[in-house]
Design goal:
This protein is an alpha/beta fold. The chain folds into two domains: about 100 residues, Urease, subunit C, domain 1; about 300 residues, Alpha-Beta Barrel (TIM Barrel), CATH 3.20.20. Helices cover about 35% and strands about 20% of the residues. It has 13 helices and 17 strands. Helix 6 crosses helix 7. It is globular and about 70 Å long. The structure holds zinc ion. Zinc ion binds next to loops.
Length: about 425
């Protein structure tokens, strides 16, 4: 009995670790560039040098003594910065502009086949400079499997924190499959579908049982689902309270998908850690988020993508896509004026994987300075994900999660879309030759 409980304790402890299982050799690499972005102050150090020993940052400054035997990579006129953190992706899949075709493929592909697509998406995401993602929903346990395979060094990809199935109501945004019941498999708590507080607690526990790092809940309707209005609450206050308190009891953060304002107010009252999308949020709701330090993950990229493809979507979804995309950027503009904390998130999978840095461009078009946009996608992301002690800023002792982009990033934010070097945990995946 004692051995069993020790074993179970170990399982719980290891399930939330983010370090890779594979040891990295203690090679020393020195990165030099004309600029280095400090995500704490939002300013540039010029020039900048980083000494990487094994998987960690050993030293950092303008001029450092180069350790004997170190490999020196001089990037010239480039900016070194922390690897990007995308707080909202769905890395196991990707939509096209053929909604019906995607539906068919989703039904027909074997989970193993879909996981291989996922491995490709993980690779292109990492090569775009994203070294950490929070994956907020996937089916068939694919994202959990991808996380484990990346951690084991089997495939290249960003560090993943995974929600597994999102938690929502029957007929809600996580359960919008209107196929008649005799032709499909009934969904239940394992697939995150719950009704009533006890059932919702069981749904949370099921995700954690299989290794979820974070809990995603669906208090409001969504855009890309057939059966639900986008701005209407789909869970009761009692259900939302049960989901959030159960997540927190297991030391998991709770991320609430909310387009609608009423659902967001309910989620905030329950103590969620972030509001995802937030399309129709009102000023009093945004101020409450600021007061309680609840992050907004605005997913402007997804709003942009679905707005552009609205006429290709089924009519019921196209109407919602237009409404949400029109409001999202306006809401973001008000939120940043009010000082709501923001973590960058793209909802990649709705748009193409590997285009994550376009979110920085959209943020600056809507009122953020380049430095503010970069902080949201580095230091703030790490804070929201609960991994600020390990990554999110370039600091001695943290993981060497480093991206370099051409020129001075504060004068051209679009440079984030053209990385020249990507390093994760001291290992170089792009550039460096
Ligand atoms: Zn999403």
């Amino acid at each position: 009995m004692h051995i069993r409980s020790v074993f179970l304790g170990l399982l719980v402890a290891t399930s939330s670790l983010i370090s890779p299982a594979q040891a990295v050799e203690q090679t020393v690499v020195v990165l030099k560039a004309a600029h280095l972005f400090d995500a704490l102050s939002g300013t540039l150090m010029e020039p900048g040098m980083v000494v990487v020993a094994g998987e960690k940052i050993q030293a950092l400054g303008r001029e450092l003594t180069i350790p004997a035997g170190a490999q020196v990579i001089d990037l010239g006129d480039a900016t070194l910065m922390p690897g990007f953190i995308d707080a909202h992706v769905h890395m196991a899949g990707e939509m096209s502009n053929n909604w019906y075709g995607d539906w068919f493929n989703g039904m027909m592909r074997f989970p193993a086949e879909q996981a291989l697509y996922g491995a490709h998406y993980a690779s292109v995401t990492l090569l775009s400079g994203v070294t950490t993602v929070r994956d907020l929903g996937s089916a068939d346990f694919i994202s959990l499997g991808m996380r484990n395979a990346i951690r084991a060094g089997m495939i290249p990809g960003p560090r993943m924190l995974v929600a597994n199935y999102p938690i929502g109501a029957t007929g809600g945004h996580g359960d919008s499959n209107p196929i008649p019941p005799e032709r499909t498999v009934a969904t239940g708590v394992i697939q995150g579908v719950c009704n009533g507080a006890d059932s919702c607690r069981a749904a949370v526990r099921s995700q954690i049982k299989y290794g979820a790092d974070v809990i995603k809940l669906m208090p409001s309707g969504g855009v890309l689902s057939l059966t639900d209005p986008v701005d209407t609450p789909e869970l009761t206050q009692e259900e939302i309270n049960a989901i959030v308190s159960e997540a927190h009891a297991w030391n998991r953060k709770a991320a609430a998908h909310c387009h609608g304002d009423k659902a967001a107010k309910m989620a905030i009252a329950a103590g969620v850690d972030s509001i995802e999308h937030g399309s129709f949020l009102q000023d009093d709701t945004l101020l409450e988020m600021k007061k309680k330090h609840i992050y907004l993950v605005p997913t402007l990229s997804a709003g942009d993508t679905v707005g552009l493809m609205a006429d290709k979507l089924p009519p019921a979804i196209g109407v919602k896509a237009t409404a949400a995309s029109q409001q999202m950027q306006k809401m973001f503009q008000r939120a940043i004026k009010l000082g709501v904390p923001v973590a960058m998130g793209t909802d990649a999978g709705v748009g193409h994987h590997g285009t994550n840095a376009y979110e920085f461009v959209l943020m600056t078009r809507n009122g953020y300075t380049p430095a503010q946009a970069l902080i949201s996608g580095t230091a703030n992301g790490a804070d929201l994900l609960g991994i600020a002690a390990q990554t999110g800023t370039l600091q001695v002792g943290k993981y060497a999660d480093i991206v370099a982009v051409p020129g001075n990033v504060l004068s051209d934010i679009s440079a984030t879309q053209r990385p020249v070097l990507v390093m994760k945990e001291g290992h170089i995946y792009l550039g460096g030759k």
